[in-house]
Amino acid sequence: xxxxxxxxxxxxxxxxxxxxxxxxxxxxxxxxxxxxxxxxxxxxxxxxxxxxxxxxxxxxxxxxxxxxxxxxxxxxxxxxxxxxxxxxxxxxxxxxxxxxxxxxxxxxxxxxxxxxxxxxxxxxxxxxxxxxxxxxxxxxxxxxxxxxxxxxxxxxxxxxxxxxxxxxxxxxxxxxxxxxxxxxxxxxxxxxxxxxxxxxxxxxxxxxxxxxxxxxxxxxxxxxxxxxxxxxxxxxxxxxxxxxxxxxxxxxxxxxxxxxxxxxxxxxxxxxxxxxxxxxxxxxxxxxxxxxxxxxxxxxxxxxxxxxxxxxxxxxxxxxxxxxxxxxxxxxxxxxxxxxxxxxxxxxxxxxxxxxxxxxxxxxxxxxxxxxxxxxxxxxxxxxxxxxxxxxxxxxxxxxxxxxxxxxxxxxxxxxxxxxxxxxxxxxxxxxxxxxxxxxxxxxxxxxxxxxxxxxxxxxxxxxxxxxxxxxxxxxxxxxxxxxxxxxxxxxxxxxxxxxxxxxxxxxxxxxxxxxxxxxxxxxxxxxxxxxxxxxxxxxxxxxxxxxxxxxxxxxxxxxxxxxxxxxxxxxxxxxxxxxxxxxxxxxxxxxxxxxxxxxxxxxxxxxxxxxxxxxxxxxxxxxxxxxxxxxxxxxxxxxxxxxxxxxxxxx
Length: 652
Description:
The chain is of the alpha/beta class. It is built from 24 helices and 19 strands. Strand 4 (158-165) and strand 5 (171-179) form a beta hairpin. The longest helix has 30 residues, at 585-614. It is globular, with a radius of gyration of 30 Å.
């Protein structure tokens, strides 16, 4: 393994800058493996400045841990020994075990902040050049450090590792030693190679025979390791023997719920693929009664260890006809809502989910900002469900409760504390949310005098019931949401600055629907399917004309307004289609107005261009001819993006 001390740090930094900004390779600076990896990363369209992806789902992690159980069992004691030996050099070292798909499946590190590395991607397809991705691609021991990492986020990372092969010569994973904040001495890195060899010997000695007898084990792994295809392995009786991660994603079913089940149990109609000769190129997977259009890439017969024929299907979604898998799900129970249930494919909403994933890993207060109807409550619930909080999710709307009652609602009250108080008193929202999450909706509506009491409760970590004297300690995570600008409220002295900073530790801004154009189609399809199912009517489709109108409308009420418009259309449709005739007049009128304005703008632009051409670009003469001032003409030139090179003379 080449030493990282041989790397010329400043030259690599310059090489990375030139490559990331200008796609220029600085000759003679990069090692060949790094240069190849950078070029592959760039070719895949990876942005070196983007934030890292969140960990894979808990279900996928569980499946990976089960698939790699032998490797995990054999590697665990060796990883502990390496960490104990290497930590005398640097306390920040992390010993990691990476699956062959590039996912971290185990780590040895005592500090809690590193717990979140399990489930993180290190493969080249998702994060570009890293120690793990280079080792998996080159299939040899290797070390990567600093600016050799493709993503800016990882450029404080140094580390190396060695691949682990099974008795058939197939790579099973990577054993790695990393330091997120600095270099690692050569001695422990060399030790990694020896440790990987020990694990390989142990794997060979335990060369399991169960792959020959247990068809539900991860057999045919190399065949299923298809990064660009959904892969499904079926026995002759129609039972699923194995599936890769992409296939599990398209079905939206955890891995453990796929293997060993029959097509009919999974409500998937693929039987014609096994009986039709020749194999059709296009087919549909039916999930919950709705089709997912697919293109078959290959269907072949393969023999298992027991000599029984199986069918290996490699297929992909038909991108021209697909319906996003999330849009065909039935409405989920709010208490089991996950991030995967929240629909959004736009980059702006992807950033929201990245922050939400991070918020779920910690217990710090979260402030969610966004207009009414953007789904702040759903995001708060998903953060709670994804966290380790075992208590309830308790919500309170600060704007819907009379100011005089808000204190007793939050903190509870003792018996006899006021007229109408129930016998025995009543616990408040804080007590009900013990061990869980308290969600404060419409935080900006909280009265100033209540803000003082609430701030004191947050500082002291105790509450006192109204009419009581006993201090009650609490363990509650706070998530707040607002549809108003709290900074403006602070300027207007209607919200306390100290409370704002106390709650605004993690800030998540949900963009309005008009700024998420890419999300309107999948959201609309989801709402049509879920509302029509609730109403008990046959499946209804949205015409392309309606989707086009939806994408041009500004949606002041956001998703809530979109849902109401769709529900109204479903009530009055009689041909299982939502057409423009079923939309409210207010939406059609606004779209028509925009069309007229665009036509007027185009006409005005043409007149200005003609006048400027007539006067050879002379601003003074053109403005006089048009009957407007020079400054007004300059503003219109800027507004209509009129290019100065369109005219013979300089603007003057």
